[in-house]
Design brief:
The protein is an alpha/beta fold. It contains 5 helices and 6 strands.
Length: 160
Amino acid sequence: MQHTLVFIHGLESTAQGTKGQFFAQHFPGMIIEDYLGDFSARMSKLNRLLAGRDHLTIVGSSYGGLMAATYAMEHEDRVRKLVLLAPALNLSEFTPYLNRQLMMPVVLYHGTRDDVVDPQSVKNIALKCFRQLDHFMVDDDHPLRETFPVLDWKKLLLTD
């Protein structure tokens, strides 16, 4: 079965940021695009890019984590797994989904020293919304500078 790997960068980042470059180098077939504009514009682009694709494994970082989780809520049958890195689930754009639960596996990493997205409020939301959640609080900052490079990405992205 062909898996489609997707990376969605954060609000202030681009596809050429540290994480985007890492994924481009290690997972050459991964969909890595730039997202600009407001939430609606970014989601429209994501929906166009992923139209007709399934067996999706989506990695979302910060605002990209919000986008990934929103996409999964709207297209649960097409998403195989989410990997969320300090996802901004505490923003109002995610409010419509707070009373729903996703059944696919969700792996979430969040730094305890994150001063951009509150780790505890995100944890509370994630515990409510993701039935198969593996949640990791790590001693790191918002970009997960220390954690990101040492994660076993092959295992995270290519195994169930």
